[in-house]
Sequence to fold (176 residues):
Amino acid sequence: MHVGGGSRTEELVDYYLSNKKENYETIDISDVRLSGLDVSELDRRNKLEEAGDFSDEIFRYAKMMAEAEEIVMAAPYWDLSYPAVLKAFIERTFVRGITFKYDDNRQLGLCKAEKLIFITTAGGFIGENNYSGAYIKGVSEIFGIKKIKQYQAEGLDIIGNDAKKILKDSKATMKI
Ligand SMILES: Cc1cc2nc3c(=O)[nH]c(=O)nc-3n(C[C@H](O)[C@H](O)[C@H](O)COP(=O)(O)O)c2cc1C
Fold:
């Protein structure tokens, strides 16, 4: 979600992934151009869910989320949270019967992953306004993912700050 090249968030997530030994699949959700769920998509999805037919392409991201062994999400800090396309993506993953289910009116997570990593970068400081991190943590809990770890680099757009050093220091905190 960066105009031109040089996304700092991408630099951090690339660093994390390039140091992983395991194979991984990536989706650039800004490329996929998802918009928020609309009434017709929701209606179609509800009907498929009720019929227990999860073969449709509409469930692609929910299945990926459910089957992954580890999930890494990366998004810049925008307007105190994250770009809307990430919400649109998460809307596609919240599917009863794939990523969670109801059991005695309680939501139970169905995702295999034990760990979700959330990577973000901010021009200023996130401080107590970690709404993106809190939201991703909430999503992970519903999906049954127990460990959530956030890595961040902050103050990148503050004049006089050494953005390269901030990014390097953030990479050094990563446990991969
Ligand atoms: C639309 C937009 C909204 C932003 N909102 C905030 C904000 O609320 N707080 C903040 O500290 N930085 C904000 N920033 C700055 C970005 O968080 C910062 O530049 C970040 O490193 C961008 O990541 P990127 O290099 O991967 O694009 C905003 C940037 C953009 C483009």
